[in-house]
Automatic annotation (TrEMBL):
Positions of the THIF-type NAD/FAD binding fold domain: 60-161
Domain of life: Bacteria
Record-given protein name: TOMM leader peptide-binding protein
Coiled-coil segments: none
Alphabetized InterPro entries for the sequence: Bacteriocin_synth_cyclodeHase, ThiF_NAD_FAD-bd, Ubiquitin-activating_enz
């Protein structure tokens, strides 16, 4: 598999990015960890953004500007959220996800200073699996579950949910109002009357 993945974030004492990169390399995927937006290779087939609960909104703006496809990975103690895979201009962006989540009463994941490592390992493994499914989508029949969906998994209780994520037409980052187009033209009755 000739693909390149960048894993952003998780540079704390846990060092979450490097184990994920190593797991991907073990599966034949070229992967490297990055700790800042500027370190991301623009040729990446996918960028995994760890700690999306902290840096998802900022990275969303960066990804939309640079056309980067990315997968947000958020984790809080035992619960992780993956996805959706965000393809600028085609799928819902991170702001769409956040705005719809708030409107539907989905509580945000709070960043915590500690984590339950066995739970994090399971969520990280899910992120690796979703990445491999995305990269091999043209050669296998298993589309990533996180394409168009957010996967929430409670690794402690072994429970999960898959929820669809749709583009928000009024999204301030990627919605119709954000696209350049002609302003509405007022009409007048005089313009509608045809003179003989």
């Amino acid at each position: 598999m000739s693909a390149f993945v960048t894993i952003l974030g998780g540079g704390g004492e846990g060092g979450e990015a490097e184990p994920i990169a190593a797991a991907l390399r073990g599966l034949g995927v070229e992967a490297r960890a990055a700790s800042a937006f500027a370190e991301i290779d623009p040729g990446s087939d996918l960028v995994l953004v760890l700690q999306a609960e902290l840096q998802g909104a900022a990275f969303n703006a960066y990804a939309l500007e640079h056309g980067l496809t990315w997968l947000p990975v958020a984790f809080s103690h035992t619960v992780g959220r993956l996805g959706p895979i965000i393809i600028p201009g085609e799928t819902a962006c991170y702001d769409c996800l956040e705005l719809r989540g708030r409107a539907n009463g989905l509580p945000p994941l709070a960043a915590k200073p500690s984590r339950f490592d066995p739970s994090w390992s399971m969520v990280a493994s899910l992120a690796v699996m979703e990445t491999v499914k995305w990269l091999s989508r043209s050669t296998n029949s298993f589309a990533p579950l996180s394409l168009g969906h957010q996967v929430e998994f409670d690794a402690f209780h072994l429970q999960g949910e898959v929820n669809p994520v749709y583009r928000l037409p009024t999204c301030p980052s990627c919605g119709l109002r954000h696209q350049a187009r002609l302003a509405a033209q007022p009409w007048t009755e005089a313009g509608l009357v045809q003179l003989p």
